[in-house]
Amino acid sequence: VNAQILTIGDELVLGQVVDTHSAYLAQRLATVGVRTFRHLCVADNVNAIAEAVQRSLGESDLLLILGGLGPTEDDLTRQAVAQALGAELILDPEWKVRIEERFHARGLDLPERNEIQAMIPRGARLLTNRLGTAAGFEATANGTRLVVLPGVPSEMKAMFEDHLLPGLSEAGDTIFVTRRLHCFGAPESSIHQQIEDLMKTGRHANPQVGILAQSGVITIKFVAEAANEIDARVKLDPLERTCRERLGELIFGRDGETLEVAVAKRLEARKKTLALAESCTGGLLGHLLTNIPGISRFFLGGIVAYSNAAKTELLGVPPEWFETVGAVSAKVAQAMAEGAGRKSGADVGVGITGIAGPEGGTREKPIGLVYIAVCVDGETTVERHQFRGMRETIKDRAAKSTFNLVRKCLA
Amino acid sequence: VNAQILTIGDELVLGQVVDTHSAYLAQRLATVGVRTFRHLCVADNVNAIAEAVQRSLGESDLLLILGGLGPTEDDLTRQAVAQALGAELILDPEWKVRIEERFHARGLDLPERNEIQAMIPRGARLLTNRLGTAAGFEATANGTRLVVLPGVPSEMKAMFEDHLLPGLSEAGDTIFVTRRLHCFGAPESSIHQQIEDLMKTGRHANPQVGILAQSGVITIKFVAEAANEIDARVKLDPLERTCRERLGELIFGRDGETLEVAVAKRLEARKKTLALAESCTGGLLGHLLTNIPGISRFFLGGIVAYSNAAKTELLGVPPEWFETVGAVSAKVAQAMAEGAGRKSGADVGVGITGIAGPEGGTREKPIGLVYIAVCVDGETTVERHQFRGMRETIKDRAAKSTFNLVRKCLA
After folding, report:
1. Separation CA B4–CA B22 (nearest Å)
2. What are the start-end ranges of the H helices in B271-319?
3. Any CB–CB contact under 8 A between B165 and chain A?
4. Rounded CA separation A61/B110 (Å)
5. Cα separation, A88 vs B320, whole angstroms
6. Structural contact between residues A287 and A278, judged by C-beta atoms closer than 8 angstroms
7. SS3 assignment, position B255
């Protein structure tokens, strides 16, 4: 089974928004053995969309079409696909009732324009949308199964998983299974060197092994083609074992695991609670931790001590230190970590202080200088880092390095 | 002048890497009046690439081709483009010397495989690459100017700016200027209704006016085609004025302005400082605020009171309230906002408490229920919200609604 993906939108084609949907879908399709061989993106224009659809029909088993199902006059995908199929648009009365109900639930009448969201080409099958008002639809033409989904990310994903993925997983004869091992704390070249002999790329390598560096995290990626999950595992497990033997603690997680998830797992394993004292990250550490469902069992809270006064009042940092060692120093980081633990009764206290820029750097304390302290049961470890880049990059790297230190301190 | 962008790579078409190049180039092209109308992405396969090139020739003034110029056997763009042009690949001896020198500088001999990086189709013009070894090239066929650049981001960008952009800026007689107005606090359909008569889309509308909804923010987008910046402004300013008259406080910002930037601007205008008490957002509010350079003048700090104990100890919420009204209540939100202001001496205190899920919901207090309180100089406003979606969506909407309330309270 092979597939093409057609995304629609002026904002995409003009580059105002980066298309992440195509990559998401191609990756999900690969997991069930569907190979995507082309992405196409066109503007909100009936003729351009219809032409792209017509060109693509007959070329692939599956044609996924995304976006342009909203209620405004920019949203022209329904009309264009109907035109390409040579069918008229007809109203699905059941879906119209469903979207009326959604509006009524918010105390609103169904705006006339939203009625279009219940229209599909005659002969097509409506695909329900449990998160929004835009119905999707599917049809078959020239041997191609054509599936039209809204561009809203959550709706697109839910509908893809609800309506498309289950049938596809049953249909394919081989599947692609991807496994990723994430490393932090060493440069890509050093990790590359240690696993170079395992790396295979190209269409016929099985499993394929590659390396990807993204935002400081180095990911080793294995893709196995196999008849089923078990055969894939037989191919992947020895590779994963070899990588783990060679790279040890550099590997912090697998597949969807982030550094903060690695921290949460260590907290759970060691039955510890954690509290934060953030300065330069401004709340990012707490935000990332609280993206993890159920984290409230281990994460008690934190203090964003952005100003020096806050560091003193909320964390007990002696005010004279700002004159002597300065707010960005190992000593203040340590006092913040210990203060966070003490104030909240947590087993693990984390303190971070640094200069995210673009202002505030000096020759001795340049932009990107960050001190991280982790205090576990009264014992504190401090690290000094010098990051490069813009404000948001510095915050990101500082957050990752902090979680990495916490993880190591809880090993 | 119009353009198509063709990106090449297995990792792109299989979704292992998100294509950000197309958006980058389309945006840069728009600034010099070149309108991109199609993106296409195909795998590392000679026939697929050659076919895509052949199909696209004659359709546009400019065809940008990216990627597949490396030295490995996966890199097939040179061969494929030569095939599409019906030309053989020939070695550029000068460029071969240049890349030999690059290798020698690192104490290495030129690997045989890298010689391909100095080959271009006969009749094409070589484009130098000051950051890498892969030469680019350009040629004209069927009235289309075809430009081939490497996929390495830094090399692609440098070569685009060096070789392509200067000529294009001189050639174009018009430019495209985009302006965006961002709204929050009303559904897309209601905003649409209020500016419906202004909306014009399609290739010939000038300025084009459209609406985009993303993560709760409704954006009105104007694209003007004009001879120069001033002419563009003459077209855009009256439209912006009309939208502002009709939508008033619903509009929180323009172009790159986020809700948190709108808050920062109000704080600056009113000379106020702010402190946060976050529960369900877990630090997200602080993180977003501290992405703004220079925010330390207005943002003092915050408390992430994730546990009830933290709400009591750090913010002074009476512990018996957790039994009577519950942690997720207007009363607790108000106490948190007032506590945040009092503890840190800020003029504005913000409190937010809610249930982000996926656990912890009850019939009376379902997942997505959030109370937001903003206390300005002792006067507190509380809002109750019921959000839908996953944990991260609820956090995102809660954060946006909080900044929106702060903005309104500082109007």
Report:
1. 9
2. 284-289, 308-315
3. no
4. 44
5. 63
6. no
7. coil
The pLDDT tens digits of the residues spanning A279-336 come to: 999 999 999 999 999 999 999 999 999 889 889 988 999 999 999 999 999 999 999 9
Q: pTM of the full predicted structure?
A: 0.80
**By the 8 A CB rule, do A308 and A326 touch?**
no
Residue of B2, B10, B16, B160 to mutate, interface with A, max A Cβ within 10 Å: B16
Q: Is A169 helix (H, G, I), strand (E, B) or coil?
A: helix
Could you tell me the two tokens for A89?
A: 């648009």
> Under 8 Å CB-to-CB from A369, ≥6 apart: which residues?
A328, A354, A355, A361, A384, A385, A386
Provide the shortest C-alpha distance from residue A382 to chain B (in Å).
23
Measure the CA–CA gap between A269 and A142, rounded to whole angstroms: 56
Looking at the complex, report in whole angstroms how far the Cα of residue A35 sits from the nearest Cα belonging to chain B: 7
Closest listed residue to residue B244, CA positions, set B300, B198, B306: B198
Contacts of A306 in chain B (CB under 8 A): 286, 290, 296, 299-302
Do A287 and B281 lie within an 8 Å CB cutoff? yes
Does the pLDDT value for residue B252 go beyond 90?
yes
Residue B185 to chain A, least CA–CA distance (Å)? 14
Q: CA B328 from chain center: how many Å?
A: 33
Is the pLDDT score of B201 beyond 80?
Answer: no
Select from A114, A282, A294 the Cβ nearest to the Cβ of B287. A282
**Distance from B383 to chain A by nearest Cα, in Å?**
17
pLDDT tens across A228-243, in order? 889 999 999 999 999 9
Of B13, B213, B310, the CB nearest to A39: B13
Query: Using alpha carbons only, what angle is made at residue A253 by residues A248 and A257, rounded to the nearest 5 degrees?
Result: 175
Q: What is the DSSP letter of A75?
A: -
Non-local (6+) Cβ contacts of B46 within 8 A are: B76, B79, B80, B83
Residue A157 CA, chain-centre distance (Å), reads 13
pLDDT value of position B384 = 97
Determine contact, residues B92/B120, Cβ cutoff 8 Å: yes
Q: Which of A27, A71, A313 is closest, CB to CB, to B15?
A: A27
* Identity of the residue numbered A245: E
Token pair, residue A81, equals: 């696909």
* Number of CB pairs, chain A paired with chain B, less than 8 A apart: 285
Cα B165 from chain centre: 22
- What percent of chain A shows pLDDT beyond 90? 74
* pLDDT above 90: residue A143: yes
Give the torsion through C-alpha atoms of A130, A131, A135, A141, to 10 deg.
Answer: -80
If one counts every other C-beta atom within 10 angstroms of the C-beta of residue B166, the result is 11
How many CB atoms lie under 10 A from the CB of residue B3? 23
Of A18, A30, A284, the CB nearest to B287: A284
Query: Would you tell me which residues 187-246 of chain B have a C-beta closer than 8 angstroms to some C-beta of chain A?
Result: 187-189, 192-193, 199, 201-203, 208, 210-214, 221, 223
pLDDT at A203 (0 to 100): 62
Structure tokens at B10: 């297995």
Q: For residue B278, which of B395, B404, B121, B138 has the smallest C-alpha distance? A: B395
Please say whether the beta carbons of A74 and B195 come within 8 A: no
CA distances from B396 to A133, B41, B351, B387, B388 (A): 21, 32, 15, 10, 11
Q: How is residue B96 written in tokens?
A: 């071969």
| C-alpha to C-alpha distance for A108 and A106, rounded to whole angstroms | 6
Long-range Cβ contact pairs of A195-203 (< 8 A, separation 24 or more): A195/A220, A195/A242, A195/A243, A195/A246, A195/A247, A198/A239, A198/A242, A198/A243, A201/B72, A201/B74, A202/B73, A202/B74, A203/B10
pLDDT digits (tens, 9 = 90+) for B353-393: 999 988 888 999 999 999 999 999 999 999 999 998 889 99
What is the pLDDT at residue A299? 95
Considering only CA atoms, which of A43, A45, A70 is closest in space to residue A148?
Answer: A70
- How far apart are the CA of B132 and the nearest CA of chain A, in angstroms? 18
Rounded-to-integer distance, Cα B178 and Cα B233, Å: 10
